[in-house]
Every structure is written in structure tokens, then in C-alpha cells.
Amino acid sequence: MSESVDNRMERAVSHLKSQLAGIRTGRANPGLLTHLQVEYYGAMMSIQQMANVSAPESNMLVVSVFDKSAVASVEKAIRISDLGLNPQTEGSVIRLRLPELTEQRRKELVKVIKNESEEAKVAIRNIRRDEIDGLKDLEKKKEITEDDSKREQDIIQKTTDRYIEKVDQITREKEAEIMTV
After folding, report:
1. Which of 61, 131, 154, 172 is 20 to 30 A from 41 via CA?
2. What is this structure's pTM?
3. Across 51-154, where does the E strand assignment appear?
């Protein structure tokens, strides 16, 4: 089994973690804004390139914009995002008060988490399929024996199972975090 299988599966898990960081829980988390893109002088930039985001309180985010002329653009990006936040601007600082999550909204977020989780699992299974297909090709070309191929396939399957369990664990933790009132 190539080292790349572990690396590729780990990247799928890392991607899931970054996707879930942007999903709102009951507490303010600067990761909530990580995927936000802001139009700045005709180009799209991530909010991290334009501002510092912090969470001074459990239900508030503070966005300190570096360039005062970009405050309106950042505010607009936050307003039109699907986060449902109402920015309050004071100079180059934007305050975002996070409303309490309703039970219905929590359940919707859990569905989003499950979808992200399933996408990560599909990515991991695709990596497994690619690797096993590669082994079968080598076996057909007589570059490796049937026994070696089976042994490698077992290792790949165990690696896949380990990463699927990681995804399940991350998903359970995020669901618990969201459902905690």
C-alpha cells in the first residue's frame, strides 16, 4: 500500500473538518466565517485576507477589517451570506451577535453535517476503489502475485475502515455540539 492512500484519506478527513468548522454551533466560532468571500476591488478574497475574526463572547464575533475602505464590502458579504447574521459596524470593526439556535435550525444543521460526512466517506471509498483497481491492474500485468494483491487489498480495506470511523467520530462530536442547548 502506498503512503499516498493514508495521505489522501487524511486530506478527505481534513476537508470534512474544515467544512464542519463553518457550520454554526451554539457558540461563536471564528471558523464560521472562513468560507466567506468578499468582493474587493473587483476580485474575490477570503475574509481572513481582509480582516481578523475573533470571538470575545460566546454569542458574538468581532471582525476587525484591515482596510477601512473595505468595511462596506465585508459587511455586505456577511449580510448576503446564508449565515443569517446582522452586522453592526463601528468604524473598521463589525460586530456580529449570534442569535440562539432554534430546535428546527439545529435539526437542519445536523442534516447538513450528515451530508458533509457522507461526502467525505464517498471520497474515502473512491480512494479505496482507485487503489484496489491499481492493484488488480498490477496483478493482471503479473507485476505482483495474487497473494500480494489480496494482502494489500486487506490493508487498504482496514485503512478505509479506520478513516470511515474517524469521519463517524467527527460527525458524532459535531452533532452533539449542535444539539447541546
Report:
1. 61
2. 0.68
3. 51-57, 60-65, 87-90, 93-97
> What does the radius of gyration of the chain's CA atoms come to, in whole angstroms?
22
pLDDT of residue 98: 80
pLDDT above 90 covers a percentage of the chain that reads 38
**28: buried, middle or exposed (CB in 10 Å: 19+, 13-18, 0-12)?**
buried
Confidence of residue 45 (pLDDT cuts 50, 70, 90): confident
Report residue 115 CA to chain centroid gap: 11
pLDDT > 70? residue 25 = no
Domains and CATH numbers, the chain: 3-20+102-179 (1.10.132.20), 28-97 (3.30.1360.40)
The residue among 121, 115, 118, 156 whose CA lies nearest residue 136 is 156
- Higher-confidence residue of 57 and 11: namely 11
- Distance separating alpha carbons of residues 10 and 94, to the nearest angstrom: 35
Q: How far apart, in whole angstroms, are the C-alpha atoms of residue 165 and residue 46?
A: 32
Distances (CA, A) of 110 to 69, 94, 124, 160, 170: 38, 28, 21, 24, 12
